[in-house]
Amino acid sequence: MKWTQLPLGPLQTNAYVLENDKKEAIIIDPGSEGPALVNWLQEQALHPLAILLTHAHFDHIGAVDDVRSKFNCPVYIHSKEQDWLTDGDKNGSSRFLGTDAITAQPAEHIIKKEGALIVGSFHFTVFETPGHSPGSVSYYIEEHSIVFSGDALFAQSIGRTDLPGGHHDQLLESIHEKLMTLPEETIVACGHGSPTL
């Protein structure tokens, strides 16, 4: 498996594109610049199988509908944030962007609990890692020693908890119980900034 980090939009939110040798792909958190992301995927001759969302803050969902409509691929999100996609107040875009609220169509697949998630040849373990937001999840690929943590954990930092639904103690618990228990060699591919290598 190959993975590529693509910082998108004014907040430089990391979208991650995972691909196998068949040129099938998984897109994690396509946050912005939908047309440019679609063009890049086409230039790479990739065939997205699914969009996985670590959470539904506006800077992580802005290109969801562009990618989904072009490649006809389903979206996965945790149940606690499934209605955030269609609601600019809940996903924060109304608060930060005013009338230019960012929304997306509802997700096709709702994650209701932790465990295995298999899409094509891609095998993930889903961890519930709330605290930054109530429905935050992390996607771990044990075979490749990498976890896509969204905004829960960054290199030498943690996610903010002052947004609606955030909870500092809950985030620390998520990090200590779910992410810090992963093997030492695990790469943390986070929502902003550089991965821990």
UniProtKB/TrEMBL annotation:
<dbReference type="Pfam" id="PF00753">
    <property type="entry name" value="Lactamase_B"/>
</dbReference>
<dbReference type="GO" id="GO:0046872">
    <property type="term" value="F:metal ion binding"/>
</dbReference>
<keyword id="KW-0479">Metal-binding</keyword>
<keyword id="KW-0378">Hydrolase</keyword>
<protein>
    <submittedName>
        <fullName>Hydroxyacylglutathione hydrolase</fullName>
    </submittedName>
</protein>
<dbReference type="GO" id="GO:0016787">
    <property type="term" value="F:hydrolase activity"/>
</dbReference>
<keyword id="KW-0862">Zinc</keyword>
<feature type="domain" description="Metallo-beta-lactamase">
    <location>
        <begin position="12"/>
        <end position="192"/>
    </location>
</feature>
<dbReference type="InterPro" id="IPR036866">
    <property type="entry name" value="RibonucZ/Hydroxyglut_hydro"/>
</dbReference>
<dbReference type="InterPro" id="IPR051453">
    <property type="entry name" value="MBL_Glyoxalase_II"/>
</dbReference>
<dbReference type="InterPro" id="IPR001279">
    <property type="entry name" value="Metallo-B-lactamas"/>
</dbReference>
